[in-house]
Structures are given as C-alpha cells and as structure tokens.
Amino acid sequence: xxxxxxxxxxxxxxxxxxxxxxxxxxxxxxxxxxxxxxxxxxxxxxxxxxxxxxxxxxxxxxxxxxxxxxxxxxxxxxxxxxxxxxxxxxxxxxxxxxxxxxxxxxxxxxxxxxxxxxxxxxxxxxxxxxxxxxxxxxxxxxxxxxxxxxxxxxxxxxxxxxxxxxxxxxxxxxxxxxxxxxxxxxxxxxxxxxxxxxxxxxxxxxxxxxxxxxxxxxxxxxxxxxxxxxxxxxxxxxxxxxxxxxxxxxxxxxxxxxxxxxxxxxxxxxxxxxxxxxxxxxxxxxxxxxxxxxxxxxxxxxxxxxxxxxxxxxxxxxxxxxxxxxxxxxxxxxxxxxxxxxxxxxxxxxxxxxxxxxxxxxxxx
Length: 365
Description:
Belongs to the EIF-2B alpha/beta/delta subunits family. MtnA subfamily. By secondary structure, the protein is of the alpha/beta class.
C-alpha cells in the first residue's frame, strides 16, 4: 500500500539482506519513523512494545527473530532459547506461535550450518504468503460488498464499520478486514468506512491513516457510537479482523469487538470476520474459556497520545491520581454472532463443520 504516494510493505529486508525495516507503530500516525531490527532481542522488544502489532505482522517479525538468533548461534539450544523468548512476547495472537513453529520445524530438519539461510528463506516465504493471502481475502470479501452495492439505488454508498486496525499495517500488505474495502474502492464502488477509535490505544487512528492515504472515504467515531449508527440504518455491514479463531468458530479480537457483534446482531447487520488461515487454532474449542486474554500496562488506559498545541506528540493523563486501570487487550465473540468468516479460500460459516470443509489440512492436523 502507499504512504505519501510511495509503495510500502509493513516489513521488508534491508539492503544488507540480514536486518529488516519496520514502521514504528508506537508513533504512527503522528510521526513517521522507520526502524531497523537486526537482533532477536530487538524483534522481541518490538513485539512487546507494539512497535509492530497485528497478528500476521507479529508472526513475520517473530520469524525473522529466529533468523537473527541463528546468525549468532545455530545450535539446537539456541533454537529453543529464541523460541521461548519470542513466543512469550504476546500470548493471545496465534499467528506468532504458528510462524515460530513453522520456522523451527525447518531448522530442526537441517544441519546447523544450513540453519541461517533456511531461517531467512522461511521468514521471506511467510511474508510473501501473507501478502498473497490478504489479497485473496480481499477478493472474497469484495463479493460481499458487491452484493450489497447491487441492492442499493445508483449512487448510494455502502457503509462499512470496522474495529481496531486490521489493515496493511497489521499484516505485510493489504490487511485482512481492510483488503475488501481497498479492492471495492479501486473498483469504483462507492463505500464509506466508520472507523472505531478503538480505545485504549486508539488504533482506529492507524486505520484512518491507512484509508486516508488510499483515498477511501471514512469517518473516525467513538467506540460507543457503533450501536447508534446501526439502529439508524447507517451501517450495511461490519468487517473486523481477528487474532485467533477457535475450532468452533469463536473469534478473539481487539477489546470491544464483542459489543459490536452484539449490536450488529440486535440490528440485523451482517457481522463478518476477515482472517488468514494461520489465525485458526484447531486446538481450542471454547474461546471464552480457553483463550488467554492479554492484560497490558494500565498506563495505556490512563494516558492518551496525541499532538499538542505546539505540534508535538505528547501523552495526557485522563485518570484521577491513584486510580487503578484495567487494560484487557482482547475479547471473544461467540461463533453464533458471526455471519461469516472471510478467508483466502472463500467465505464460510463460523462453525466447526464449515472450517473442516474449507481447511481440512488445518482442522485435522
């Protein structure tokens, strides 16, 4: 996708072909900073601090983190040490563990002398596959938007609501939830996106940054406004991303997603979840009971980032001194509230039978 007219991916190899470049998403959309990562520790810190975020992108950075570890020590012990450090950085999103497991399986199958080259090769492949997967998600989601647009009067707008940032900044390219929006806009379908602010980290600002850069009409709204808009017929469909989908179709996504699903269900608004297949976790059945929900530092809840009157990025404390802050990063939307899962293979129902039919290689693995 583009920033100021220049084409970017959210992660790419540096000219030295051993380090990687990422955007510092802690500072976006207020400051544009490109960081270089070259060690496993830097990769782990970038994930923990949310310099990189989004389940697919976290997995890609983790994969390169394993390659960085192999550049210093290609032993079996080094594989295990690096794996443990990286897999513990973010507990909820399954893509990280999936990517690390995939890289480690290849590393264990070759001699120590081959491991460095194999690790970089696999990390590169994972990144390229992610971009292709997301483009295909976009094509399948585009069909849904086309169908809604076809039922409208000429010139009427398709209004889409999204929560958090499931855009190209959270993946390698295109995004998951945003990919159908970009393709619909490129095709000339008149769309408008309601972008939830997504407290506490206000990741809706990242989605707005993306959509604005691509010229997609959008409006940033308070998290609590979605239900009101649905009641008044201002939302045609909801598309969100996800960090983990269970074997029965429960969806774990950014905190607040569950409330949007409830509002959509109450107002007969279709609620779709866009996901790459590595986000499916066949080992978990009941998302509410089994998925670990990350709790982050309360400062993310009590302090709001923005631009001050002097044009400087700053943080404002909005909580009374000494107030305890609960910062739950994710929630789980039960499968029965999900209209459909938009995947790279097509759109399927959010249930075990449909997932088995579409992804037998995952569900039976």
